[in-house]
Amino acid sequence: MKELSFLTYFLFLGIFFVPSLFYAQEEQEIRVEESAEVFLEDYSDEFQENFFEGLKQKGIQNYDKAINYLLECKRLEPNNVVVAHELAKTYFLDKKYIQSQEYAMEAVSSDPENYWYLNTLITNTADQGISKDSFKDRIPWDNEILQKNLATIYFKNGKLEEALKTLKDLGNRDSNKHLAQKITDSIAKREAEKESNLSPVVTNAENTVVTNDLEEYKSKISSLLLNGDMSSLLSITEEALENYPSQPYFYYANGYALNKLGDYKDAIEVLETALDYLIDDVALANKIYKELSDAYNALDNPSKANMYFSKIKPGF
Question: What b-and-e string marks burial along 101-131, b requiring 16 or more CB atoms within 10 Å of the CB?
């Protein structure tokens, strides 16, 4: 039964989540890592049929039908956290935010260290303009991994001060230093850009040299991306990153070169770092997602490949 269920699930992904649907449904996340745990035990055929059909209907944007199938799964397995999370995401897509929030809180309460459950809850409440203080007493807020996940979510959403405050509340731990440094670098970059906009005429000679150097790297890298010299591209991007370690474009170009040279694992690590530094650049984000999708496909990991491919936004 379990082997057949997994086979059916992957066939389901191949049939229904074709590229056209990925483009049509912005930011949809059908993650095998989350949903596959449903099949690690011998659930009833009735449960599995409803769950598959719920995912299918969600994938083709029939949210009311998807919710009905998932609610039947919930009736059959009341404590299944994966079903609660799927309901939270589907209600959110259907713009039924109160129901989505309830199921998202249930998922986080059941598994507070799961990044994606918390991400769904924060996305929902942010869209409603609801402060986290209004639901802190309903989830295990003192969980340290939950707090670090929250800081990461704030960082990726561009809420840098909130991210840094969340980390500081956790205390000075070695495991948080890398994230704290990235947040601090991003704040410094943002402040520098503000200063640059306020002072269009640069009078400091040292600043002029730094700006020219940065632009020179970008120009060289753009040229190498066009002419296909991957060895030179790899070399120049490594040099650029040594001098400018918080530039997402340099990480992207480095990951692109690694991909083309067949070093897919290192490419993934670099490209995911690029996302950590990326703020409000949809066109570059699309390029990074495309390279991540290609790398995971090359490593025969279709679930991850499809997840990143689904994040690509059309029109940029």
Answer: bbbbbbbbebbbebebbbbbbbbbbeeeeee
